[in-house]
Amino acid sequence: MSAPFRAGAIAVLGRPNVGKSTLVNALIGAKVSIVAPKPQTTRHRILGIRTTDKAQLVLVDTPGLHAPTGAAINRYLNRTARNSLDEVQAVALVVDVLRWTPEDDGALEVAVRSGLPIVLVINKIDKVPDRTKLLPLLGELSGRHAFAALVPVSAQKGQGIDGLFDTLVGLLPPGEPAFDEDMYTDRSERFIVAELVREQVARQLRDELPFATTIEIETWANEGGMLKIGAVIWVERDGQKAIVIGAGGQQIKRIGTYARKEIEKQFETKVFLELWVKVREKWSDDEAALRRFGYE
Ligand code: GDP
Ligand code: MG
After folding, report:
1. 70 vs 19: CA distance, rounded Å
2. Which atom of ligand 1 lies at the shortest distance from residue 39's CA?
3. End-to-end CA distance of the chain
4. Confidence (pLDDT) at 189
5. Pick from 4, 73, 84, 213: CA 20 to 30 A from residue 15's CA?
6. Which of 139, 169, 199 is the last residue of a domain?
């Protein structure tokens, strides 16, 4: 007798920057969630979906759990991460192989409180060339909770990902798939494009802007085999606008070029991308503005 088809969802939790979005993309085999070397890159709850002939795994990428201080957007991020636990059958808790911090304790606590089985995903093992060092670490980590499994991986290098996929599928109940087999995310094309632009803003500007930008798609048209997109990069201050534009428009040009290439890769079509930078004060601490930009 063949094994039953399994289907369900697993939340990917962890503190900021441990590699949750990179892991979701690696498990799905497509870029559903943007990645940048800084916290607060992931702002929305994003579904990644992968269907094989044996199972459909839905992964819920979440914003990192962080200390609940300050601006409205921080509260929104924590709420989004916690709420995603209501709809899943298990939790993948992601940590960085190099260090366990108090924020990891906090993330573990949130996961444990859900009462769901937890797989501890120990990411970035490419940073530990001597693999014998992993054994004592696994022993130590397994004492922190009765985990369903501990799986060392490198999301970036693709190491251990197939095994992790099988482990996660093993936690899903038998059931029918909820999504078409060719769907790999629940997000619209416009959303993905906005995220790809935001990814390049974060990458090109690095530390110059913390998280005070958001992207609004203004125009979208298919013309002569080409996707024509107009988007606004919203910032909070004139000074930030100047930084995003850069001397002689160099910075915005670079953001646009890289974003266009990513969009062309993802959608397999020629793209014409036009970007504007506009100022709206304090949008990240303004509940009404957050709603307007889609942070419900
Ligand atoms: P998130 O905030 O938890 O979603 O983390 P991201 O997926 O955005 O990744 C944060 C940073 O860690 C990025 O610079 C990634 O390229 C990097 N990263 C993710 N996975 C790995 C990995 O397996 N090895 C290494 N060396 N870096 C990784
Ligand atoms: Mg992320």
Report:
1. 24
2. 2
3. 46
4. 84
5. 213
6. 169
